[in-house]
Write a structure and sequence with these properties.
By secondary structure, the chain is α+β, with helices and mostly antiparallel strands. It has 2 domains: 26-186, Immunoglobulin-like (Sandwich), CATH 2.60.40; 204-479, Purple Acid Phosphatase, chain A, domain 2, CATH 3.60.21.10. Helices cover 17% and strands 25% of the residues. It contains 7 helices and 25 strands. The strands form 5 sheets. It has a 7-stranded mixed beta sheet, covered by helices on one side. Strands 15-14-13-23-24-25 form a 6-stranded mixed beta sheet, with no helix packed on it. Strands 4-9-10-6-5 form a 5-stranded antiparallel beta sheet. A hairpin with a 2-residue loop joins strand 16 and strand 17. Helix 3 (216-226) packs parallel to helix 4. It is globular and about 60 Å long. Residues 21-32, 34-44 and 51-57 have low confidence and may be disordered.
Amino acid sequence: MRTHRPLALAAVLSLLAACQDTLGSASNDAGTLPPTDNGSASDAQGIASDAAAPGDSGDPFAEERAPLAYTPEGCMHRVSSLPGTINNVLGNRTVFGPMPAPRNVHTSWPADPSSTIAFVWQTDSQTRASVVQFGTDPMRLDQTALGSVSTGGLGSTEVTIHEAHVCGLRPDTTYHYRVGGEGHWSAVQRFKTAPAPGRTDYDVNFAVSGDSRDNFTTWRQVQERVVMGAQQPDFQIFTGDAVLLGTLQGAWQQWFTGAAGSQAVMPWMMAHGNHDALAINYLMQFAQPQVDAPEQSELYFSFDYGPVHLIFLNDTPLRDDYAGNVAGTQLTWMRADLTRARANRARVPFLVAVHHKPCFGSSRHSSTTDTVFVRTTWAPVFDEFGVDLVLNGHEHDFELSKELDGRGQEVSGRRGTRYIVAAGAGAQLYELQDGTPRSWSAYYESVVNFLRIHATMTRLEVTPYRLDGTIIDRGRVSLTPRPM
């Protein structure tokens, strides 16, 4: 949870106006595990909190309405509640409401993926218990951490989210966990930490999908395909537009249900899309790295995973200052981050950017004002710093660009950037408006799709798949490190 200003409904509708689209399970008790949240196995991780005390107001609920900010024990990052949230409670073990069973349980990385993890889940608004049990043996979850809970939104948008952070984990290690509290546990799930920074003998595998919107049948089928096979991804990236309207919690519930199989076995990292709309439901339900820009904290960030540096950007900020958000503070941060990443290429050779609106697509949005602005602002920066690959959503199709410079002109010899649109995970597919791809396109196909990416120190390979499991051969990419 973080210190964004959620958009009002009018602003949400403004965000969606530019888009021409047609708006058309947990268990209560794991049972087989010994209880470990009573202090017998390990003490819970402590929390340093800045939450305000109720003082002399005489209001027993004053503390729950106060903003919540704390540093999880052993962590360097902060966790804070969103403005306007209520039920802000930290470190509770024992208070349960009428529907305390955890729902939509998932993990993500709030900082270094080799040593940290964030657990996020939903309950009814009266449940305060926010406990995580975890360990390397699924039958012996011998460590415990406490988290926080907040409720935000109104009416059909209301959501109560629990969030717990753990730091000091071992690199390259599979952990098992359950969340909730005594008698009301989720099923046991798992995640794997990244390799230790600087390690060079490691293969990375991750999946990419995007633009599920409200076709949750196709979305579930895509996620079933993602986890098929002997080599499961280490994590998954989503390129934005999870739901049709980000303020509707019912749609989010269906989205999480469709993703439950993959979220049970891997962390997820999210790029913000225009239909996600900076809604409180989006902002509360994902825990991601923070930057020193309160209005966009956790909307743009970066991290290293093995041989890959991943930089996530937000191309759908507040519309009252679109240029300032895309070309201002965020651009300054982006240039500083890529400067550091370029200097570290001997240890982390591949630079991959992720954001929603493609700089170089060929279908419905390729000439809209906001897309052109992103193209002319960010593509030259990707070219300047030698970004190898850019992953996008927004256009509901699959498209691979040629190797491009910052103006969209084809180059060769590993001097350019490849752009991939991976945005066919459920939303209505797009066709080319004039029947011909743009000059920068290498291959286009209007098809449900997802990506698998495999990277070592010497090669990064992208394999796109259709829903039936066949490979989009003409969309495959194999990159070697750029000359130093």
